[in-house]
Specification:
It is a single chain. The strands form 6 sheets. This protein has a 6-stranded mixed sheet with strand order 18-17-16-19-20-21, with helices on both faces. A 4-stranded antiparallel sheet has the order 1-3-7-5, with no helix packed on it. Strands 6-4-9-10 form a 4-stranded antiparallel sheet. Helices cover 32% and strands 28% of the residues. The protein is elongated, with a radius of gyration of 31 Å. Helix 6 links the parallel strand 16 and strand 17. The chain is built from 11 helices and 21 strands. The protein starts with a helix and ends in a 7-residue tail after the last helix.
């Protein structure tokens, strides 16, 4: 091993040097130079051909353009603003919809104004656009404050890390940027876009819940009165029966019984085979299934049910809501982070769901394909006494000609991606 160490060391240093050079070049081209600066640098490179000899007049143009770039950088450094940025970039948005927030700029210089100040995000993730990157403050006097909007738009759902929002100045010629302040990094949760359902027909039933009262306490359920018993120190005072206490002369409490709760499991199929053929169609069906699950969750948000969301992607997501207090925003955040799973997800979902089968009343399954594993999974749900509501998302039948699945009992609906994307699916 010692004989190879000298040869490996120079390679490591060379790779680090190349990485630093590529990072510096990316910084200079993407952040330091404005679009006008890109044009100027391109013109400098073209006119650099004339610098090989003084016999060609073009070298004068090369020297003038290079001097212009140098003057812009030196002037920017001399008038570099002393700014602070207060606020935070947008933290939540819907796919395809712009979201705007306002940040406050403060010039902390005692005498020097900040000129041509704007906000920028260097290193935005792919798929996110800064729509108003050209919004600017022409002159911010010393000690003054101003508000600038930041509008972002993401085309696809997901959870994206956001770089710091930087306050920069492009004075004097709008060719280079000079930094003057920044915020802390953040993240943008892009919720899935969906069209609301007008009607959702899900068969519900009540099953015994060992923790039924705990799951539904304080959310509007009417508990059934079953009798009185002696008061145990530490119990809530609101359970005391004053009339019975007056009759028998010792404290007693009311005893209620409500262990039967409607519990619904939402099961999302995220299996996209790792194949090159029809990859875009598979991804499109997955996005349609996520949108449909969001619409179903919105409808269930208005009912007092206990909801379990199972979504298997690269990670297994399990989320439980309390009856009557369904955290719809939390469900959307989970759906925003769900990604395609190239391994069959029911190998992960099945053990967790099967453990809960004795207490689950209804299972709503949104599938993007049909095969024996999914068929076996549905059979085990029904054998456990769950009422099954199945939805199969298919491509347009005219384009694929794929048949619907074999009816496994319960309510099955076959929908197309086009109907979901265009909001033509109103009832389910």
């Amino acid at each position: 091993m010692k004989d190879f160490e000298p040869s490996l060391q120079p390679r490591s240093r060379t790779s680090q040097r190349r990485w630093r050079l590529s990072g510096a070049a990316h910084y200079l081209w993407s952040f330091k130079l404005t679009p006008g600066g890109h044009v100027l640098v391109g013109a400098i490179l073209l006119t650099a051909l004339g610098s090989v000899t003084t016999q060609m007049p073009i070298y004068l143009l090369f020297a003038a353009l290079l001097a212009l770039l140098g003057v812009s950088e030196l002037t920017g450094l001399v008038f570099k603003p002393v700014l602070s940025v207060e606020g935070q970039a947008p933290v939540q948005a819907s796919a395809g919809q712009p979201v705007t927030t306002h940040l406050t700029l403060t010039n902390h210089s005692r005498w020097r104004p900040a000129l041509d100040v704007m906000l920028c995000l260097f290193g935005l993730p792919r798929g996110i656009k800064h729509l108003n990157a050209d919004a600017s403050v022409v002159c911010l006097r010393a000690g003054a404050t101003a508000a600038l909007p930041v509008t972002l738009r993401a085309d696809q759902r997901g959870i994206y890390p956001l770089p710091p929002v930087r306050a920069v100045s492009t004075f004097p010629f709008n060719l280079v940027r000079v930094g003057g302040g920044r915020t802390a990094p953040g993240r943008l949760v892009v919720l899935p876009a969906f069209h609301s359902l007008e009607e959702l027909d899900i068969p519900v039933s009540h099953r015994y819940q060992p923790r039924g009262i705990t799951l539904t306490r304080g959310v509007g359920h009417s508990l059934e009165f079953v009798g009185n018993r002696e008061y145990v120190p530490g119990e809530p005072a609101r359970w005391i029966d004053a009339k019975a206490w007056g009759r028998i002369g010792k404290p007693v409490v009311k005893e209620f019984h409500d262990e039967y709760v409607c519990r619904i499991a939402l099961i999302l199929d995220t299996h996209v085979p790792s194949r090159w053929v029809r990859r875009s169609q598979d991804r499109r069906r997955l996005e349609a299934a996520v949108s449909l699950m969001a619409a179903i969750s919105e409808q269930l948000n208005f009912h007092e049910h206990v909801i379990d969301l199972f979504a298997a992607g690269p990670e297994l997501y399990v989320f439980r809501t309390l009856g009557g207090t369904t955290h719809f925003e939390n469900v959307l955040e989970i759906l925003a982070g769900v990604d395609a799973c190239h391994r069959h997800p029911f190998e992960q979902i099945s053990p967790l769901v099967i453990e809960e089968l004795e207490t689950i009343s209804t299972a709503v399954c949104v599938f993007i394909d049909w095969d024996p594993l999914r068929q076996e999974f549905c059979r085990r749900l029904q054998e456990a006494g769950c009422v099954l509501k199945g939805v199969l998302v298919r491509d347009d039948p005219a384009a694929t000609g794929e048949p619907p699945p074999v009816d496994q009992g319960g309510g099955w609906t076959v929908v197309t991606t086009t109907h979901i994307e265009q909001g033509r699916l109103l009832r389910l």
